[in-house]
Amino acid sequence: MTSASSTARTRARIEITGEILAAARVRLTHAGPGELSLRAVARDVGMVSSAVYRYFASRDDLLTALLIEAYNELGAAAETADASVAERTDFVARWVAACHAIRDWSVAHPGDYALLYGTPVPGYAAPKDTISAAVRATSVLVDIVITAHQGRDAELETRVGSPQDLEKMLAGALEFLGQRAEPTTSVNAELAMRTIAAWTAIFGTISFEMFGHLVGSVDDYNAYFDQVVRRLAAELEL
Amino acid sequence: MTSASSTARTRARIEITGEILAAARVRLTHAGPGELSLRAVARDVGMVSSAVYRYFASRDDLLTALLIEAYNELGAAAETADASVAERTDFVARWVAACHAIRDWSVAHPGDYALLYGTPVPGYAAPKDTISAAVRATSVLVDIVITAHQGRDAELETRVGSPQDLEKMLAGALEFLGQRAEPTTSVNAELAMRTIAAWTAIFGTISFEMFGHLVGSVDDYNAYFDQVVRRLAAELEL
DNA sequence: TGTACATCAGTGAACGCGCGTTCACTGATGTAC
DNA sequence: TGTACATCAGTGAACGCGCGTTCACTGATGTAC
Q: Among A96, A109, A95, A105, which Cα is nearest to A75's?
């Protein structure tokens, strides 16, 4: 008698599901997510195309699984990098480590990156299952910023516009940041503004690099990214 | 006798070429560039698919024409917005106007924006004809920054790393900026660094908005973009 | 001005292709007694 | 432990579809004399 979770069938299922996902991700390197072909993936794995339907109910389901897997990998990379900084109060070091981990993963997985941060697939709406995975990498960055500012004497001064305007405009972000901060603390709207702008700048920089817009302008992408990240750290007063 | 440039044929050719391009751009709103179908475009225009080949030698040629047209429109929008600021020494106003023009055009033409700044079409390499169009919007921003700093007493101080490192890393950008500056002036590497970072942040912000990454965080995209742009203006010391 | 020829836009059929998905099947694996 | 039945992974054929591109054609427009 075999326990339900370790029969040959169950193990094979897990393994082959992984093989299909891996093959699909390789395909994504050479074709956009919209052109991802289930039949091509099946061929790569060595099955007949209809067999894939034993594992994924449709092409969209495959895309969803890919999205979740990729988001989780990116999130895990950021988390690991942050955790590897021994001096937990060195927020600049943690920020730099996490940002570079995000870029390193992106450079190593261009197809996956395009899936996550490139043009959305037309006609495909990511289901809610993807949200918790999608938020992981971002949460690492947010936590570093919030923790750095937690319990400081002075709140950041609003640079442009009024605090009230910022609060209204960033209501959603403030709620998200508030959930990740200590229960009693309220998050400063100016800090939220700078955090979102920094987060956007990081992925904007990676996208520009990956999609070829920095060709001819920047020679050393890693060094350039490092510059951007350290400037953002200063901006965020980490 | 009719002059070569205004025969009925020539006029029809120009008109229909425009109709094909327009139909293709509508299609791009609902399908990524990789999935753009020549047959579908032909159908929309009311021709048989093979007739399109009288106007474009291949699907890739159509894509190239779309790229050039869209880049030129975006560039023209930025140029017009900049030119409409009467007080030419009010560089902040010019910067804000140009940036908003870029965002407004992008929001109004999401399909075209994705073509220009989204995931590149796999297997398609934009030919060199596109470069001069591609550079127009960017040039507007660069010119504002350079002109603002032209002939100032103090050069910007390098914030992170050494000026030498920046110069090496940004050789390509420095050459580009140098071409647009007054002949005798040399462009400060720190200024180049901040300019590229600002340029990247602008398109990063627009991409995040357009591709859905700000949903739930930011409520008023236009106000948020305005914040970003004004902060960048300060950063650039316009 | 009128005619003969050349150019060219648009047609419609055809090519070979790959796609997502369904379905009846077979044989191996798992389960209950 | 052994047998009977149920589950399920994988097969292979088939469906209807849309795609990019080629080609011989027709009829209208343009050009040269």
A: A105
Report how far residue B76's alpha carbon sits from residue B70's, in angstroms, rounded to the nearest whole number: 10
CB-side exposure of A186: number of CA atoms within 13 Å?
6
In chain A, domain spans: 1-57, 75-235
Q: What is the CATH number of domain A75-235?
A: 1.10.357.10
Q: Residue B30, CB, less than 7 Å from strand D?
A: no
Tokens read off for B152: 């100032």
Answer yes or no: same fold for A1-57 and A75-235.
no
pLDDT, tens only, B157-216: 999 999 999 999 999 999 999 998 887 777 899 999 999 999 999 999 999 999 999 999
The token duo for A199 is 């987060």
Phi, psi of A170 (to 5 degrees): -110, 25
Residue A232 backbone dihedrals phi, psi, to 5 degrees:
-65, -35
**Which CATH number is associated with domain A1-57?**
1.10.10
Q: Could you report the per-residue pLDDT of A16-68, keeping only the tens digit for each?
A: 999 999 999 999 999 899 999 999 999 999 999 999 999 999 999 999 999 99
Whole-number Cα distances in Å, B224 to A1, A200, B205, B232: 61, 12, 9, 12
Residue A112 Cα, gap to closest chain B Cα (Å): 11
Nearest CA to B209 out of B68, B106, B97, B112 is that of B106
Helices (H), A31-170: 38-45, 59-83, 91-108, 110-117, 129-134, 136-149, 163-169
Q: Distance, in angstroms, between B32 CA and closest chain A CA?
A: 6
Choose among B172, B200, B230: nearest Cβ to A216: B172
